[in-house]
Amino acid sequence: MTIFNVGVIGTGMLGSAILKNLDGLSEQSNLNIYCCNRTTEKAIKFTQKSKSIKYCSSLAEIVNNCQYIFLAVNTESALQTTKEIAELASKDFVLLSAEAVTKLEELENCFKGNKALIARIMLNTNISSRGSAIVYTFNKQLRESQFGEHTEKLLSMLGSTTSAKENQLLSYTVIAGCLPSFIYIAVEAVQDAAVCSGLPIDEATDVLLETWLGALSRVKESKKSLNEIKHELYYPNGITIKGIRSLEKEGFRRAIIESYLKML
After folding, report:
1. Which residue, among 14, 114, 116, 23, has the nearest Cα to 70 in the 3D structure?
2. What CATH number does the domain located at 172-262 have?
3. Over the stretch 161-187, which tens digit does the pLDDT of each residue have?
4. Which of 78, 119, 142, 240 could form a disulfide with 102 if both were Cys (CB 3.0 to 4.6 A apart)?
């Protein structure tokens, strides 16, 4: 069985979510997990909640111990942290950048011509419970190395994976990273509407979530188009089509499209 020595740099919201996922896998997989953070207390506090995650006091410890390093820092810190990692490199390892903007070429340049195995990955904080899709792209060196297949295996342990071209990643970032916020707003709006109509919020939310989960499963499993599935719920002069008409009148579809495109 493959042994993965995995490090996470950054224990903010995304880094913590990745660590929580890895921690949950540690009992059934050969994982050695390490983490570090510029704010030491934050990283130590996180590791105190886990028996399998080891705290590292420096980037050097992460680089020396790990074959796979998740870079979960903000855009402002991504290149500088990568440069510091590159200066410490004395063996092959895979750098998995979860930062949305910095390109593979920029990350590779930090290694000043030395061999660099780099992946860019897109996901969201739902990764903590393996509820996030993971979209990834590898640089040429990683694709052609022995680490490539193992990196795909590691990512598939964390969630559902999709390989993409780098120029597609920003759009996938919107889907995999940002769109959950759209869903949360929609759920909250329906909650408010349900309460206004006289329903108790807890019971209404239970029904709402089960209905949406069922609808999403139907989309995933059905061979029919969305248009066909949608029309199964329509009846002449029925309440569903009246609701759809109201959404169209209020610009619901256009608002989603425009919001998506403005994030690119």
Report:
1. 14
2. 1.10.3730.10
3. 999 999 999 999 999 888 889 999 999
4. 78
